[in-house]
């Protein structure tokens, strides 16, 4: 950022929302979508609370908007940083702009003690210059964006830099945001996969959309070797997503995000991505998981037979001990005795097999 940049006051009417805001859904990108953006922000960005604060205390001078001259609308400025604050001020000044929560907006505007006609802003010469500044602020800085916003920002910066060599591109982006090349590569690769999911209407998974999708889970998944291989990501290609198998991507998306009647996914939690990665490294385990076996059971099938045996036996012993410890809490019946007889018979058969293997 140039040292010459100063804070100046700009009329609210001359300020428009960033047409490329990485925090907005793709459907809201572009110009002349003010009412739609205000509606989305009222529903998703706690704008009403901000309206109350600004209406009570006035606009905080230490939080200037970061703006550039509009490339499409002469005499206007695009707000690259501070769109939520701009929304709050616009609604305070003109509550009729609201198409949702109309009563709450009108009440907040009526109760406002202060009005803001001009907003303190810092004008940057170019959007590229501003994007680089935002890299420090929102990727590794004090006001972090969510993972999807970070990915979209990095992609915008990548496009503006126009670096042909991919490795050099990753290195440059990593330096700008103060991160690693592997982080940049993984999050941009994840964005390519996400874009394909979005293009396929999120595979019509109930409740899954641009707002609800957990992009952090997605890009962490695609950064794992076996998951990436399963859906067809080629880490060495200029476009890793070019060879993706859409059917397998649909499977993966469903496992991670489609919820059952108990509001759980096949993955259960993001911390089990390592287990899913292990399952997809083994054809037998993958087949079992696809057939409906829970992830915690399918992962047992990923090791060598001796490891599977040890894990299964230890789990069986733990379960039998739990059953034994419950005996004082209820009255057993003949059916339970039959189950125990089956356990004894299987154990005896297993003992015979082990002895035979040892003799061999």
TrEMBL record:
Residues 44-103 form the ParB-like N-terminal domain. Transmembrane segments: none annotated. InterPro entries: ParB/Sulfiredoxin_sf (IPR036086), ParB_N (IPR003115). SUPFAM superfamilies: ParB/Sulfiredoxin. This is ParB N-terminal domain-containing protein.
């Amino acid at each position: 950022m140039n040292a010459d940049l100063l804070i100046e006051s700009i009329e609210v009417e001359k300020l428009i929302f960033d047409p490329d805001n990485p925090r907005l859904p793709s459907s809201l990108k572009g110009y002349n979508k003010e009412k739609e953006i205000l509606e989305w922000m009222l529903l998703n960005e706690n704008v009403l609370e901000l309206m109350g604060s600004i209406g009570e205390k006035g606009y905080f001078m230490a939080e200037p908007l970061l703006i550039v001259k509009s490339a499409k609308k002469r005499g206007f400025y695009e707000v690259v940083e501070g769109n939520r604050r701009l929304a709050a001020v616009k609604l305070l000044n003109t509550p009729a702009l609201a198409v949702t929560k109309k009563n709450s907006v009108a009440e907040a505007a009526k109760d406002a003690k202060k009005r803001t006609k001009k907003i303190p802003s810092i004008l940057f010469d170019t959007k590229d210059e501003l994007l680089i500044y935002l890299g420090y602020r929102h990727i590794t800085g004090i006001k972090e964006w969510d993972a999807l916003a970070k990915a979209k920002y990095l992609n915008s910066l990548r496009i503006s830099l126009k670096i042909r060599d991919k490795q050099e591109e990753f290195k440059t982006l990593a330096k700008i945001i103060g991160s690693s090349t592997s982080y940049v590569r993984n999050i941009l690769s994840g964005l390519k996969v996400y874009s394909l999911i979005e293009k396929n209407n999120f595979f019509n998974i109930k409740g899954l959309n641009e707002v609800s999708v957990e992009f952090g889970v997605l890009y962490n998944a695609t950064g794992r070797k076996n998951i990436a291989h399963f859906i067809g990501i080629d880490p060495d290609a200029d476009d890793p997503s070019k060879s993706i198998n859409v059917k397998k991507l649909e499977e993966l998306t469903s496992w991670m995000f489609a919820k059952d009647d108990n509001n759980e996914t096949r993955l259960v939690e993001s911390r089990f991505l390592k287990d899913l990665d292990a399952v997809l490294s083994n054809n037998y385990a993958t087949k079992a998981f696809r057939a409906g076996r829970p992830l915690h059971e399918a992962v047992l099938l990923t090791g060598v037979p001796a490891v599977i045996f040890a894990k299964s036996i230890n789990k069986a012993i733990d379960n039998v001990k739990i059953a034994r410890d419950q005996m004082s809490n209820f009255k057993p019946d003949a059916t339970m005795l039959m189950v125990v007889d089956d356990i004894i018979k299987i154990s005896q058969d297993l003992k015979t097999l082990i002895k035979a293997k040892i003799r061999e």
